[in-house]
Write a structure and sequence with these properties.
The chain has 14 helices and 15 strands. By secondary structure, it is of the alpha/beta class. Bound molecules: pyridoxal-5'-phosphate.
Amino acid sequence: MKKPIKPASRTRNVAYAVRDVVVIADEAAATGMPMTYLNIGDPNKFDFCTPAHIVEAACRAARDNQNSYGPSDGIPEALTAIRDNQAAKGIVDPLYSFVGTGATEVIDICLTALVEKGENVLVPCPGYPTYDAILTKLEAEARPYFLDEERSWQPDLDDLVARIDEKTRGIVLINPNNPTGAYYDLEVVSRLVELTRERDLVLFSDEIYDRLVLDDRPFVSPASLDPDAPVLTINGLSKNYLAPGWRLGWGTLSGTEAQMGEYIEAIKKLVRARLCANHPEQLAIPVALSGDHGHLAETRRKLIARRDLAMEILNSCPGISCVKPEGAFYAFPRIEISGSDRDFVRELIRATGVVVVPGSGFGEKPGTNHFRLVFLAPEDILGPACEKIVEFYRGYPRR
Ligand code: PLP
């Protein structure tokens, strides 16, 4: 008998609830059950398409044989477009930008260059689990700070400040938030910028949904509030430009050269070590950022109608309560149940074929239960799926 190949212990606690739930869904699907997948934030799985002019730019690049490796930071045309786009958001004279294989790689590289084993980064709770997974892999701590459901999921800043210690290196701000759809008040964003300056921390400003603020509120980038604050601004093509499968994102570092110089050199080393991001698709970045944005109005219109439908059905059921999402395409309803939301979701999938993600996969206040629902599906799919959830909930044991 050969000795089993042992995986590294740093992988032991890595989890990503959004995809982990698919294992249960696959088992249900194998029984012949018709399934409705409301677990993954992928617009292209529904009636959203990458705008034609953006697709054409990537295809043209591939046809023109721009299929070589590209520069490690990104192609110059893409970097110029990113810089112009950031300038339009009020981010002036940033120190460095680079293109990554999705925002995910940008986050991975910038966390890897920042944290030592045993250090911590404050992450929103609930929040997007990639940050936790990467920090766990780095043997660092994803330290949750709570978002307050009673105040439309705004961060509880007293709670956040109390959690900073000498091993804290950064704060993650996801605005609009995944999984709650919350959009943060300007005072909250300003206070976080001040805090990072006062405490010499890096603010990870995840703005991947910045064009998907649903109710006409202007978006404010933290880096635009203070050019000297140490901020990483994160964005990409996945959500605003409806191209998640292209795996293209970017990061822009702002602050002072004196404070950020050494950190940025470390980021550049990691950027070079992985060669480059997808090359031909990068030719589509300037076209996306400075071309026609007609798709956004249509996307927001659909999302508002779908959000309102989901809210109406879910909030009509006593025991389910959902704060109205103001951005992105996620809702995070609270459920009064006995037991855990993990069990609830498993039973829901088995009984109805509707796939959502347990709230605990994103973090939640102890003693509360939630699930995350993606409201990208058209009304004729979303409505019946929400009705099934309500019907299943009515028969589920309560506390
Ligand atoms: N950041 C947040 C808050 C997300 O919700 C997601 C994906 O759902 C990502 C980053 C990943 O972005 P990308 O597809 O560019 O890797």
